[in-house]
Design a protein that fits this description.
globular; 3 domains; single chain; alpha+beta
């Protein structure tokens, strides 16, 4: 899922000779070593061997190492393990615990779980995306919608063919409890690249890259979230395609207001009630963006680092600036939610920014889903 520039050196330098040899064997790379520990010497020896291999094998190493490196963090490996266990697989716990770092653990799981590892990497990348645009639709069971995937593919082709895109298009899906992730793989229009081909520089290499359209649909709540390149018009078209082709309902996408900006204006009475079972340490209103009703003056207020919780610091800032929220329209608010870490590692914290009418920076991790539940509980998420 990674799209930024990547260098394998910082990844390879952390891998043991045994794991690197296992990877080479899996990819039919003739690599053996007498070096007994990870480090620069082992890395350089492996790269020299790799340089002698065909381009196809070198490219496969790059693709593999990008995925393994990206998910090779503490949280990433925990996510991998939980999903592998959910699929009913087991692993050698003793061997896993003896590995020295997260990169080794991620490579170990790649070597042992192959295709499932790749699928989970895709899920992990999606869970960490931001910029989803929501729409309240109807609730339909999983079984009733997955049979319509071909129709969704045709609907997306209709949208993109006007831009000479989508000649080849495929939609795959991943089921996660009540949420279903749909990923559209869309062939882009023809472009040309400058690239090396068997050591020779080629200035015009024709290529049709593939870009993605992402949907997350909650079968119980009927909430649809969309992420794709393009402005409001394109997002609207993609929502309509999903509703008409997959849900088989009439699309009436009106860019509804999802978040309760009016409630924020009653700041003196604004509360964030939690139960002990919510495992919340504190909730703080950290920021506001306002537009004056008459003058259209824009105001931004951020309380910064403060020991105050709830709305206390924001109320003090408003009084100091002599601002009456009833004279303004709230266009954005920011909350900081600190969870109880239960004595385990770093304290989990989520900063959520909600912008008018339905833009939110939450991701799709379990902790973000919990924040969405709290927003509903506080009547801040109207969907």
């Amino acid at each position: 899922m990674a799209e930024s520039s990547f260098t394998p050196h910082s990844f390879l330098i952390k891998l043991s000779p045994d794991l690197l040899t296992q990877y080479a064997k899996k990819q039919n790379i003739p690599f053996e070593t007498k070096i007994e520990e990870a480090g620069e010497e082992l890395m350089e020896e492996f790269l020299k061997t790799l340089e002698k291999e065909p381009e196809e094998k070198q490219d496969m190493f790059w693709l593999d190492s990008i995925d393994i490196d990206e998910i090779g963090t503490g949280n990433g490996c925990d996510y991998l393990l939980s999903r592998i266990l959910e699929h009913g697989y087991d692993f050698d716990k003793k061997a896993y615990q003896e590995l020295k770092n997260a990169k080794e653990r991620a490579l170990y799981l790649y070597l042992n779980f192959g295709e499932l590892f790749t699928e989970i990497c895709d899920e992990y990348g999606i869970e960490n995306m931001q910029g989803w645009r929501g729409e309240k639709t109807v609730s339909k069971p999983y079984e009733d919608i997955v049979v319509n995937i071909f129709d969704l593919e045709q609907g997306l082709k209709t949208i993109f063919k006007k831009e000479f895109k989508g000649n080849n298009l495929k939609v795959k899906h991943i089921r996660k409890k009540e949420r279903v992730i749909f990923i559209g793989f869309v062939e882009d229009s023809l472009t040309n690249d400058t690239a090396f081909k068997k050591g020779t520089l080629k200035n015009r290499m024709p290529r049709k890259p593939v870009f993605h359209v992402y949907y997350i649909y909650n079968t119980e709540q009927g909430i649809l979230d969309v992420k794709a390149k393009g402005g409001k018009r394109k997002i609207k078209q993609l929502k309509e395609a999903f509703i008409e082709c997959l849900l088989k309902e009439e699309a009436n996408v009106i860019d509804d207001v999802r978040y309760n900006f009016e409630t924020i204006k009653d700041i003196e009475d604004l509360k964030f009630p939690v139960e002990r079972t919510d495992l919340i340490q504190s909730v703080t209103l950290k920021g506001l963006r306002l537009i004056h009703n008459s003058t259209k003056t824009r105001v931004a207020i951020d309380v910064g680092n403060t020991s105050a919780t709830g709305t206390e610091a924001m109320i003090e800032s408003l009084k100091r600036m002599e601002i009456d929220l009833m004279d303004y329209r709230v266009t954005q608010f920011k909350l900081e939610i600190i969870f109880d870490n239960l004595g385990k590692g770093r304290t989990p914290k989520v900063s959520v920014t909600l912008s008018y009418p339905n833009i939110c920076n939450l991701k799709d991790r379990e902790i973000d889903i919990e924040v969405r539940r709290l927003l509903k509980k506080w009547n801040l998420d109207l969907f």
